[in-house]
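Handout for the seminar on molecular recognition.
Each group receives one record of this type.
Step one: identify the two inputs.
Step two: read the structure output and locate the region that could contact citrulline.
Step three: write two sentences on what you found, then compare them with the reference statements printed after the record.
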Amino acid sequence: MFTKAIVKRPCKNLVNGLTTANLGKPDYDLALKQHQGYIEALIECGLEVTILEADEDYPDSVFVEDTAILTPRCAIITNPGAPSRRGEIIEISKVLKNIYQNVETITEPGTLEAGDVMMVGNHFYIGISKRTNQAGANQLINILEKYDLTGSTITLENVLHLKSGVSYLDNNNLLSIKNFINEPEFQKYNIILVDEDESYAANSLWINDNVLVPEGFPKTKENINNAGYTAIEIDVTEFRKLDGGLSCLSLRVYNQL
Ligand code: CIR
């Protein structure tokens, strides 16, 4: 069960964040408002939310998910593949040391961003992407195995992070864009296909009985509701402009296997 979340307020320098989206610059005031809506939804889902203050030194620091992998047995601080994001781990590391007894780290030459890591029970799928390399994935698998957890890799094409295209929703349900539906490792799941014109909604966020879904993707929302969840729509247009989705905006503490 998810019990807590950590978020970080967007900074004004957000407008200079990394992007491939071609959707224009985010509007800072609207981003702040949307971020507040996201926090309120997490609280509505029963999570205790820690809110970290904005940090102007790191334009992408609102996407706090990428800085750590939280497992029920340890936290693992990443080494982001994007050089401009490396320093984001300093503060997160301090915060997580107050929550977790066991804190591990990914180090050079390994790079890894946790948007590339998808937790399915005690197994962690790791996307090999422009941001996460094989060395980083190998380090993560070795760390996981120390805690009786497992990991395996999936090579990505055409998506920034693994979870840009696929999200595990618990109860064996996997929300996925077309690119991943033939992935051998995913054949054991009940795949909820996300239509091509709603591909952004593949990054939806399962929190206990709820799933947060980006606003404006009605087919995906309906499919998620039909699968037995309560889909909660959240407006995140300003974060989409920076290739960010719902999962990217928080780190979630999961307490039991
Ligand atoms: C970046 O390119 O790093 C940010 N603009 C977006 C990060 C999105 N994070 C995620 O998918 N976990």
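Reference statements: The domain at 2-155+233-254 is CATH 3.75.10.10 (L-arginine/glycine Amidinotransferase; Chain A). Helices lie at 28-44, 89-97, 134-146, 218-226, 237-240.
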